[in-house]
Amino acid sequence: MKSRTMTIAGLTVLTLTAPNMATAFATPALADTVTPIVWCDDGYYLRTFSSGLTSTPHDFTETIIGALSDCTSPAISGDPTVNGVATFRGSGTGTGSCTDDGTMSEAWEVEWANGRTSTITFSTAVKAGKASILSTGTVTAGEFMGTKIIGTPIAADDNVACGTQQGMTDELGRIPTLVAL
After folding, report:
1. Where do the DSSP E strands lie in 19-147?
2. Measuring CA to CA, which residue among 61, 134, 57 is closest to residue 98?
3. pTM for the predicted model, two decimal places
């Protein structure tokens, strides 16, 4: 069995992986153990920006589509709501550029493996020159309403497009972890 540890928004997250099985739990820095309601180990996204991101900070709108895989429900063993793959789509607004820190507010509609949905409202901090960003949010409607969400998207910026007049109009990236607490 192998394990990995990371800290996300004040939580120390430990993942234990054995062949054909993944168990995950998160521990608040100074509190008792909390088992996530949902844990997704992998995923991807495609964001489309209007107007494209350039080296000059400005307001923009964005749409996002993607999928989450290897989703399990450690707190609700065998819950068919999340076991497997989930898809999502959403939109949002932001302020920033390719070279300055920025923020985004997004709303996602997630469809879990059994067809049930969750609406998640995210706030995302983007650090200039860093591929990793942090998204935190809450389920505001549907399955798991009221649950806190933490995601760690990894962007694949197109620095060539950032230098053009049109700017970077889309971004493909990974979501190595999405946790619902």
Report:
1. 21-28, 38-53, 58-72, 84-96, 102-111, 117-126, 134-142
2. 57
3. 0.77
